[in-house]
Design brief:
- By secondary structure, the chain is mainly β.
- The chain has one domain: OB fold (Dihydrolipoamide Acetyltransferase, E2P), CATH 2.40.50.120.
- The protein contains three helices and 13 strands; from the N terminus they run E-E-E-E-H-E-E-E-E-E-E-E-E-E-H-H.
- Strands 5, 6, 7, 10, 11, 12 and 13 form a seven-stranded antiparallel beta sheet that branches. It has a two-stranded antiparallel ribbon with strand order 1-4.
- The longest helix is centred in the last third of the chain and has 15 residues, at 163-177.
Length: 185
């Protein structure tokens, strides 16, 4: 669930971007909960962003655009097998009137060319995945993982760790939860 609110820049005296607030359906207390809950965990590079569907409120007055982000899978840690492309649908993008809708509660827009550690769930219909919440996204910057909310109780475990160290923590959690039955990569 998302809400929008405007922030006023007192110096410019004009509204800045809308910032979003979210109430997530699932919030995890530790990485093991998140690893167990998600369908797919990948280290992937964003390669394309395209407009997706537009959801309308029941009275038709409100709209919420979505975008589809294509990722090239660099490292499949859980769930994704087959070709190396995965598609993630996220709220935000261009609405039916051509206006940009910016939502940042999930970390904001994915930047094409950047890499991310993603914790994803598969949508019930179609080929798309969605980011589980803000705990499920870590951008790679300078070889380190950067969390959306660096103070969150799960995110703090991954935030600012070297990528390989973060991946190893995820693999250990995955293997522990599967009783050690997971095949090495």
């Amino acid at each position: 669930m998302f809400g929008l609110k405007r922030h006023q820049d007192e110096k410019a005296q004009k509204p800045s971007r809308s910032k979003s607030a979210a109430v997530w359906k699932e919030v995890y207390k530790n990485p093991d909960e998140m690893v167990k809950s998600v369908d797919t965990i990948v280290l992937a590079q964003a390669i394309d962003r395209q407009p997706g569907r537009i959801a309308y409120s029941s009275n038709g007055e409100d709209v919420l655009p979505f975008e589809i982000v294509a990722f090239r899978v660099v490292n499949d840690i859980k769930g994704k097998k087959g070709d190396g492309i995965i598609y993630v649908e996220r709220a935000g993008g261009v609405d039916h009137e051509g206006n940009q809708v910016y939502l940042d509660a999930d970390g904001g827009d994915f930047e094409v060319g950047n890499s991310y550690l993603l914790f994803l769930k598969r949508q019930e219909d179609g080929p798309y995945y969605y980011q589980v919440n803000d705990q499920g996204r870590y951008q790679v910057e300078g070889g380190r993982l950067k969390a959306v909310d660096k103070d969150d109780e799960v995110s703090v475990i991954f935030h600012d760790r070297p990528v390989e160290e973060g991946l190893q923590l995820v693999r250990e959690s995955r293997d522990k939860l599967s009783g050690g039955k997971t095949k090495p990569e």
